[in-house]
Amino acid sequence: MVELSLKYQDILPFVSEDELNLFEREVALHRKNIYQRKGKGSEFLGWVTLPDEPNESLFLRLESDAQKIREQSEVVVVAGIGGSYLGARAVIEALTGAFPLHDKGNEKPSPTIIYAGHHLDEDYHHDLLKFLDTKDYTVIVISKSGTTTEPAVAFRLLRDHMESKYGVDGSAGRIYAITDARRGALKQLAGERGYPVYEIPDDVGGRYSVLTPVGLLPIAVAGFNIRELMAGARAMAGHLKGEQPLLKNPAACYAVLRNMLYNKGRTTEILVGYNPCLYYLIEWWKQLFGESEGKDGKGIFPAGANFTTDLHSMGQYIQDGLKNIFETVILVGEPANKLIIPEDSQNLDGLNYLAGKRLQDVNEMAARGTVMAHVDGNVPNMQIHIPVINEKTLGELIYFFEMSCAVSGYILGVNPFDQPGVEAYKRNMFALLGKPGSSSSNGRKE
Ligand code: PA5
Question: Which of 47, 84, 429 is the pocket-test mutation for ligand 1 (most atoms within 8 Å of CB)?
């Protein structure tokens, strides 16, 4: 049974269920193409069945390596970018409390997970290496191509630091590589230095790879249950495959609704969360949809907002600005903890009307009030409900968004599994840096 549900009654002032039903046949065709691995980019549809084929020996290996890494590390550095970074961070940050309070008795505390190779800032990487001077650490380097500049440069810096600290032999047990099965510089380097390697399946692209070792190893190292995550994804996969009618299939419905709104001039979608721990889930979603749909001069611009924080910055624009926006809100039923607002005999702040209520009650009313205000302000709004944030519901969310994105990309008429546009900046950067054999986009040889 799935716990996630999509609520779209606040979209109905903007699109009708009759209009939605017109997509029934088209969506059935796209879904057939996805399940039968036909259609654009079909060589990258391996993610569709990942949750149905949990590989016990892979799970055992991931869990045993995660345990070893946890025992030997105060800090684990995950080096990767884009799809080789955001999925792991999304899940880890959603499940990690905001403060390091989680006392597990005598158990060794979980290592701090730090990220590198997702940008080129010199001060960040300088400070990271200084920080690592006094820490026992492990590096997980992730790159499907094995040649992406940002993680490759960060990994060279980290390797150099690690080899001076632990020696070449000592480093071999502290570096894990996750990369393509056959190709790429990382694959070759790992083979020569004897680093343990996890392979990324050929038919799973970067932004759809969180349920492969790309996401699973860092998530397990952070102390979270990767079997539950997969179970959530599996439950959602079964639900979406089984639910044929459009109105009963939340991923197909979400995909259609966003395209209907796009066709009515709503070219920006804002994914909203009311829980700061979902910040990176929203970042992951932005990458998933942005890289999948933004091509051939088309695509909904995926933006993110974190309320109520951003109601005090973006709220004005959403309420009163250009009407090219719609919102999708992630609502979480129950926080992990309870906090009651206390009574104050003097009531100088005038807040006694809230005394005895949970902070969650206030957050919920803020969400409800905001949906009402934005719909009144002519901003379509739909909501994705999950009862709690845990491995299972995150697995559901991940698979729900992946399937929605594939269907939505097909409705839009693009290949949701390639990213040709990402190469343009790289060509120019390589030419400017004088990489042998490179030339910039205007054809200039450096
Ligand atoms: O979704 C994608 O394919 C990209 O975002 C890649 O994940 C990103 O560019 C990193 O590529 P790689 O894993 O080859 O280093």
Answer: 84
Residue 415 in contact with ligand 1 by CB distance below 6 A: no
CA-CA distance, 264 to 72, in Å (whole number)? 55
DSSP 297: T
Sign of CA dihedral 354, 359, 361, 363: positive
As a whole number of angstroms, the longest Cα–Cα distance in the chain is: 75
Q: Domains of the chain: which residue ranges?
A: 5-39+229-415, 46-224, 422-446
Residue 135 known to be catalytic: no
From 1.10.10.10, 3.40.50.10490, 2.60.40.10, 2.40.50.1020, which CATH number describes the 5-39+229-415 domain?
3.40.50.10490
Mutating to test ligand 1, I would choose from 144, 198, 289 the residue with most ligand atoms within 8 A of its C-beta, which is 144
Ligand 1 within 6 A of CB of 291: yes
- Per residue in 199-248, pLDDT tens? 999 999 999 999 999 999 999 999 999 999 999 999 999 999 987 789 99
Kindly tell me the burial class for residue 101, based on how many C-beta atoms sit within 10 Å of its own C-beta (0-12, 13-18, 19 or more).
exposed
- For 303, phi and psi rounded to 5 degrees? -115, 165
Query: Which one-letter DSSP state was computed for residue 343?
Result: P
What count of other Cβ atoms lies within 10 Å of the Cβ of residue 364? Answer: 15
Top-level CATH class of 46-224? alpha beta
Residue 198 pLDDT: 97
- Catalytic, out of 68, 286, 426, 435: 426
- Distance in Å, CA 228 to ligand 1 centroid: 25
User: What's the predicted TM-score (pTM) here?
Assistant: 0.96
Rounded to a whole number of angstroms, the CA Rg of the chain reads 23
Q: Is 426 a catalytic residue?
A: yes
Nearest CA to ligand 1 atom 12: 143
CB of 304 closer than 8 Å to CB of 271? yes
Rounded to whole angstroms, how far apart are CA atoms 446 and 433? 8
Answer whether residue 445 shows pLDDT above 60.
no
> Quick check: is 291 catalytic?
yes
Q: Which atom of ligand 1 is nearest to the CA of 179?
A: 13
